[in-house]
Write a structure and sequence with these properties.
Radius of gyration: 20 Å
Number of strands: 5
Structural class: alpha+beta
Distance between the termini: 43 Å
CATH topology: hpI Integrase, Chain A
Order of helices and strands: HHHHEEEHEEH
Number of helices: 6
């Protein structure tokens, strides 16, 4: 009886349906930049901007991928023409777990220098420069924000929590 009712409701378009997220349009992204939801204006906004840039450039989706990142996973490189870029050597993830049957990305993701105020490499460098000097080369990537930061140091030594990172996915729909 129950199985029949479920089938009947699904034929009416009710029940389990996939909940796919819709992509932001260029206009919606421009609104985020214009409204300063993406910028380097404060510690929290700069962290969210890094999350956004990594999602766009390196294809990071889940909060666990962002939470497990370390500063040493990133490498500054220079192309043949002298163009600076950053590569990301990711940890094993839910879909790429490592082992003998490793599913490696076929192309190494790169984030290139761009001209203008929205250069992702410049945001990256500023983010690193806002932590304590001894933490700039080896540490978790996302650090907890200092609520009343001084001029130079914006982040604590403590790793940012996974639930705080998870909230950033609502940034675009805020």
């Amino acid at each position: 009886m129950f199985e029949g009712k479920v089938k009947h409701l699904s034929w009416q378009g009710k029940g389990k349906r996939p909940y796919a997220a819709s992509a932001l349009t260029a206009k919606e992204e421009e609104i985020l930049w214009t409204a300063k939801n993406l910028s380097n204006s404060s510690p929290r906004v700069l962290s969210q901007t890094m999350w956004w840039l990594f999602t766009q450039h390196f294809g990071l989706r889940g909060r666990q991928e962002h939470h497990s990142m370390e500063v040493e996973d990133f490498v500054f490189c220079e192309g043949d023409c002298g163009t600076e870029y950053i590569t990301f050597g990711e940890h094993p993830t839910k879909t790429r777990q490592g082992g003998l049957n490793t599913k490696r990305r076929t192309v190494l993701s790169k984030m290139f220098v761009t001209c203008g105020a929205r250069c992702p490499v410049q945001f990256f460098k500023q983010y690193l420069s806002r932590s304590l000097l001894e933490l700039r080369d080896k540490r978790p990537f996302y650090l907890t924000v200092i609520n009343n930061p001084n001029i130079e140091i914006w982040y604590k030594k403590q790793r940012l929590g996974i639930n705080s990172i998870d909230l950033w996915k609502y940034l675009a729909r805020g």
